[in-house]
Amino acid sequence: MFNPSRETNVEILRAACGAYDKAVVQLTAKVRELTQKLADLEGLDVAQIGLDLPTVHFPIGQAVPSEPVRAEPARPRAPQQGHGPTAQPDLPIQPMEHRFDVSPPCSMCGGPMAEMKGQFEESQEISVVETSFQIVLHRRQKYRCRCNAQVLTAPGPPKLIPGGRYSVDFAVHSAVAKFCDHQPLERQVRTAARQGLDITSQTLFDQHAALAALLKPTWQRLCARVLEEPVLHVDETGWRMWSGGAGSPKWTLFGLTSPRLAAYHLVPSKSAATAHSLLRGFRGTLVVDGFAVYPIVAKLEGLTIAHCWAHADRKFKEAKDPPAAIATLRGWIAELYAIERLVEGPFPGDEIALERRRALRAERSAPIVAQIRDFALAQGGLRKSDFGKALTYLLKHWDGLTVFLDDPRVPLDNNAAERALRGPVLGRKNFYSNRSAQGAEVAAILYSLIETAKLNGINPATYLHKAALAAIKNPGAITLPLSL
Predict the structure, then answer these.
(1) Contacting residues for 176 by C-beta, under 8 A, at least 6 apart
(2) For residue 170, what are the CA distances in angstroms to 134, 162, 173, 197, 478?
(3) CA dist., res. 112 & res. 102, Å (int)
(4) Which pLDDT score is estimated for 60?
(5) Strand, helix or coil at 76?
(6) Over the stretch 8-24, which tens digit does the pLDDT of each residue have?
(7) What does the DSSP assignment read for 180-213?
(8) Which candidate, 291, 218, 219, 223, places its Cα nearest to that of 252?
(9) What share of the chain is helix, strand, coil (3-state, %, to 5)?
């Protein structure tokens, strides 16, 4: 315990006085506050309480101010270095308190330090809780009547596979790992083994297949719903049906997308007949690349085709020569994109955004498009050169490239469809596609539902869990990832 009568070090005495004076000021303010509350409760004036507060002394060497001290203006805060901490509103907060094992002594007086109840200095640290597997032992209570005529057992948890050993959460976790995070089943098996779970890739696939079977009615409704859109992006990519040999058949993944929907089909052909069967019933505008089957489908169904300016620009970029002509054309195409950015917000936007885009396109985009056409028609040179091929592509698809001038809902390009295929393509590279028609259908169902959930800002795991439980409770239930 600090004893001022025995201390001879002036600096220690000065520091002790400063600490005591600070404590007195804080305690005095607290006493005033409590005195006012007591007076209010008793209906008295503060002076009637009769409480004499001590005079506050100032530290040694500090003069008592005769007039209020004016606070110095706050100095401007130095600019922050770096990007600073990122807000994490979706993460749960787990409080963790830290205490000394033994109260440390005061460095000034040597006395023991006491806890300041309820007073903490807080800081945040982002950590990770590793995924773990456990066996949940469900004990279903049995009941009987005194008449011994009936015995009942309390219901257990919902199951994807009746009598199965794996939970809905387990199946959803594995499905999201594969179809959202692109982790092959064999990699999941190795990860689970490190955490103590002995499982096979076939078991994981069985869980995915059971989940997809439950959600197939929802997928079918999603595929029908996407055909109701006024503007539809369509793109396709090759998909290997792995058979273990060099002659593995090549299927095709078709992606049909809009700003809030993504529907995928894995089919053994990319013919016009196949595309027609997938798009039968659609009555709007197809935004596509230069694949030849789409004009055939459009003619059969009476559809409007909008072609992609990004593809046209890409062909001029690849040509490289003559540089002056290419720079001129690409500069005009860049201006078209700059005009589009003048309308803020998500595409296509509300009625106000549509009308503003329509007016901008009529006033500013249409003259640029006319310049591009006149310039392209005036170019000579070999049509077999890369530049000539780019001009041929531009003029061949000219009608489709100018559809956007008449419909503000039509974008300049088909990049939305390419973005929608990015996830499945990453998965294709990681897990070597599928081995059966059943696996292809499972992939189409789960990719469609997961990508649509992502387009709507919904956690895919949360959505799949809710949709699966709804389908278990009511087989055939449809839960589109649009309104969660």
Answers:
(1) 450, 460, 461, 464
(2) 10, 15, 5, 12, 21
(3) 10
(4) 46
(5) coil
(6) 666 667 767 777 777 77
(7) TT---HHHHHHHHHHTT----HHHHHHHHHHHHH
(8) 291
(9) 45, 10, 45
Tokens of 333: 């195409």
Q: Give me the phi and psi of 231, to 5 degrees please.
A: -130, 130
What length is written for the chain?
A: 484
In a 10 Å sphere around its CB, with 0-12 CB exposed, 13-18 middle and 19+ buried, how is residue 256 labelled? buried
Could you tell me the two tokens for 258?
């809009």
Q: What is the DSSP letter of 395?
A: H
Matching residue, tokens 């997938």: 278
How much is the mean pLDDT over the chain?
A: 87
Distance CA 478, CA 456 (A): 17
Alpha-carbon distance of 114 to 292, in angstroms, equals 81
114 vs 311: CA distance, rounded Å: 72
Distance CA 288, CA 294 (A): 7
Contact 399, 290 (CB under 8 A): no
For 412, the token pair is: 């300049």
What residues does each domain of the chain span?
Answer: 10-49, 158-307+416-484, 308-413
Higher pLDDT among residues 45 and 301, named by residue: 301
> At 327, is the secondary structure helix, strand, or coil?
helix
For residue 37, CA distances in Å to 33, 139, 213 come to 6, 56, 67
- Cβ atoms of 250 and 256 closer than 8 Å: no
**In the chain, what is the straight-line distance between the N-terminal and C-terminal CA atoms, in Å?**
63
Separation of alpha carbons 453 and 184, rounded Å: 21
Closest CA to 301 of 280, 319, 315, 317: 280
**Strands of the sheet with 261-267, listed across from one edge:** 261-267, 250-258, 231-240, 285-287, 304-306
Lowest mean pLDDT among 139-153, 214-228, 272-286, 438-452: 139-153
DSSP 365: I
What's the CA gap between 472 and 46, in Å, rounded?
A: 69
Q: How far apart are CA 241 and CA 436, in angstroms?
A: 7
DSSP letters along 240-255, please? EB--SSTT--EEEEEE
Both tokens of 374, joined, read 């006149």
Angle at 77 between CA 71 and CA 82, to 5 degrees: 160
Which pLDDT score is estimated for 30? 82
Is the pTM higher than 0.90? The answer reads: no
Tokens of 217: 């009615």
Cite the beta strand spans of 271-346 per DSSP E: 285-287, 304-306
Using CA atoms, how far apart are residues 303 and 400, in angstroms rounded to an integer? 11
Measured CA to CA in angstroms, residue 371 lies from 37, 91, 403 at distances of 81, 52, 16
- State whether residue 30 is helix, strand or coil: helix
* Radius of gyration of the chain measured on its C-alpha atoms: 36
